[in-house]
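Narrative of activities, Objective 1.

The group set out to show that a structural description can be obtained from nothing but a protein's sequence at a throughput compatible with the screening campaign. Below is one input-output pair from the validation batch, recorded exactly as produced.
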Amino acid sequence: MLPGDGHDGIWNIFAEIGEHQNRIEILDWYHLMENLHKIETNKSTKEQLKAYLWKGQISEARKLLKLVKPVGGTNFLCYLKKHQKRLINYHSFQREQICSIGSGAVESAVKQISYRVKLTGAQWRPENVANILQLRCAYLNGQLAI
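Output recorded for this entry:
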């Protein structure tokens, strides 16, 4: 299970990890809420949308957005459509502790892995980057004794 922030670059990286049928991509709850708060509507409508999204009731959220037609609602509808396969029942996933509903751990891991490649003054030949990243991952996973 791979939570991400919605940026295409992250999903492109995830696409190279494992087989699609063995991977569950999850849109980060906090980024979803960040985008929800970009629409201009009253507090009760936002709370209802948040409740629908929290329970994974995406079609209900879409219906409400189409009914209310808030400023920015069309953009948010496009955002939901783009990530529809990544929208989950966040409530259930958190309650059952299936996985994190935020992308912080993944983003941190990406930073840790890339840390070795971004050393000051380091220059890498493209054909060597994959090897050094494998070593860095092995080190971070405790699979490499130093």
